[in-house]
Amino acid sequence: MQHIFSMLQQRGAEWARWLTQPTSVQERNVRNVLIDGVGVGIVSGIATFLSVFLARLGASPFTVSLLTSMPAVTGMLLAIPVGRMLERQRNVVPWYSRARVWVLSSYALTGLVPFLFAGTNAAIPIIAIWAIATIPQTIVSIAFTVVMGAVAGPTRRFYLMSRRWTVLGATTAIAVALAGFILDLIAFPLNYQIVFIASFFGGLLSFIFSSQISIPDNVSQAAAHKQHRPWHARLSQGIAALKENTAFSRFMLSAFVFNCGLNMSAPLLPLYWVRVVNASDSWIGIINTVNNGVLLVAYFLWVSVAQRRGGRFVLLASSLGLAFYPL
């Protein structure tokens, strides 16, 4: 425990220097990535209550489940075309930052809906907002990997991402607890409207700093894609790439099976909290605060284990543990 405390203290001093006195492009990028994580964490904490809001409005289980299924369906249909489109861009950072703020602003739009629609009638326009938001969500999902990979490089991914997820987890834990407390103080549905609209400021913080991330231009790829190739040639190339990278293909298949099981329970949790155990918003906030609070220590521990045992062991062990959560 003393070792963990000493490590956290050391990392805290390191982060403070990055945030206040970055001395290189790389350090400025780290600062921007971490503060972007703060903005995302604020909105992620409030996002916990989106499904809860629909459940309290009286939305059907099917309607609540659409919040989980719509991004998945859109990603399945658009991920490859969006990926090809991003490959042709000279720099993906503007796409990443703008798409991110579009998604985060959807919470503010959700907060405005009850001014126009009452009760269960508000559920349909809210779902419509998030159906549209799945398009920028897909862009963010793909661009995030590209941008973080360019910032971290091939040797510092565990280093950078563990710190980003720690910052994001801490911010989310605080935001979700604070949101739950505020929701119990104000009458429904005005309480949710205030919290969702206030989340816009977290999205704005994310946009300001994510747009300042500096990575090399993708000149060679942008030039290469100026030459049009028929769709069957691109399809053949993609299949050939999967055959050449069997380890990646196995990972994708495993991830598909794992996520099918895990995401099956995702829309059930808010319905369970609201309609089975009658949990207050404060208690829902506490549950999610504990979940995110554990991550603060877990990220450092898993990085340490990964350095000794490798990423494969960490992936298997953490996937097994996460699979027990719905049980």
Notes on the structure:
82% of the residues lie in helices and 0% in strands. With 327 residues, it is mainly α. The model has no long low-confidence stretch (mean pLDDT 82).
Percent of residues in β-strands: under 5%
Large-scale geometry: globular
Number of helical segments with 4 or more residues = 14
Order of helices and strands: HHHHHHHHHHHHHH
- The end-to-end distance, rounded to whole angstroms, is 29 Å
What structural category characterises the helix and strand content?
mainly alpha
Q: Approximately how much helix is present in the residues?
A: over 70%
Q: Which radius of gyration do the C-alpha atoms yield?
A: 21 Å
Compact summary:
The chain is mostly helical and 327 residues long. 82% of the residues lie in helices and 0% in strands.
List the helices and strands and how they pair.
Blueprint: H1 2-20, H2 25-57, H3 61-87, H4 93-112, H5 123-152, H6 157-185, H7 190-198, H8 200-210, H9 219-224, H10 231-244, H11 246-265, H12 268-276, H13 281-309, H14 311-323
Question: What are the salient characteristics of this protein?
Answer:
mainly alpha, 82% helix, 0% strand, 327 residues
